[in-house]
Design goal:
Largest sheet: none
Helix content: over 70%
Low-confidence stretches: none
Number of domains: 1
CATH superfamily: MetI-like
CATH architecture: Orthogonal Bundle
Order of helices and strands: HHHHHHHHHHHH
Strand content: under 5%
Distance between the termini: 15 Å
Number of helices: 12
CATH class: Mainly Alpha
Length: 278
């Protein structure tokens, strides 16, 4: 029969789309980690004489208005995607899981208080809330990570709360209480493991949304600031030269599209693989 992990991996491997997504995600991480080795040029090196150079053997994806190599900037831009998207998702996951566990397990007034605060956050469109918070807090990387994480906490908390409400009445949870286990032990030993699957699936799916938010903020000029290579900033700069040098906008746009698609494909495959009916 094999272990549950092996069964999950077998189901995941049967999904070709999921494997394609996993391959692209691995490629993204390799690019982020080995950017100095993979990038053919310094991403911030200026050479005005080579501005608007179309794709060629020397510059595979062309250059921008300052003569900077577009491929190199896309490779280094992967670092921003990994750093901000992964970290903000981790913040949202940890805080959301803790709030969801507490709210669903204890119930009562505490549950009502937590859920009403989160409902207030859910009343605002996430991207508009992110714009407002970044404008208020500032545009440094740490603030952007915190803002994106904050806008996603309510959905994680509600997801976990729903799972906890269905798990807390199970026999093994009742048995844990009956033998005198502390609440924290029951929560983290018996309840939390049943929330891991839905959390992983949701996190993989929301990573793509986080990338779009990062790119959108940079596109509006309130995200990652120059001269840091960022796909959203490259896209908004390329828009100004779309008729002269279309590769400046098309290439980072394709990078964003492929990355978001990769996480969505991987998330769909992970959801199907973890489905016990699969």
């Amino acid at each position: 029969m094999g272990s549950p992990r092996h069964a999950t991996w077998r189901r995941f491997r049967k999904n070709r789309g999921a494997l394609v997504g996993l391959g692209l995600v691995i490629l993204l991480f390799v690019a982020a980690i080995a950017a100095p080795l993979l990038a053919p040029y310094d991403p911030d090196s200026l050479d005005l004489a080579k501005g608007y150079t179309p794709p060629s053997r020397t510059h595979w994806l062309g250059t921008d208005e300052f003569g900077r190599d577009v491929l190199s900037r896309i490779v280094f831009g992967a670092r921003v995607v990994v750093e901000v998207a992964i970290t903000s998702t981790a913040v949202a996951t940890v805080v959301g899981v803790i709030l969801g566990l507490i709210s669903g397990y204890y119930g009562g007034t505490l549950d009502v208080l937590i859920m009403r605060v989160l409902d207030i956050l859910l009343a605002f469109p996430p991207f508009l809330l992110a714009i407002a918070l970044v404008a208020f807090m500032g545009t440094n990387t740490i603030n952007i990570i915190l803002v994106i994480g904050l806008t996603r906490i309510p959905r994680y908390a509600r997801l976990i709360r729903g799972t906890v409400l269905s798990v807390r009445e199970k026999e093994y949870v009742e048995a844990s209480r009956a033998v005198g286990s502390r609440n924290w032990r029951t929560l983290f030993v018996h309840v939390l493991p049943n929330c891991i699957g839905p959390t992983l699936v949701y996190a993989s799916l929301t990573l793509g949304d986080s990338i779009l938010t990062i790119s959108g903020l940079s596109f509006l000029g309130i995200g990652i600031q120059p001269p840091t290579a960022d796909w959203g900033a490259m896209l908004t700069r390329g828009r100004e030269y779309l008729m002269v040098a279309p590769w400046m906008a098309v290439n980072p746009g394709v990078a964003i599209f492929l990355t978001v698609m990769a996480f969505n494909l991987m998330g769909d495959g992970l959801r199907d693989a973890l489905d016990p009916r699969g």
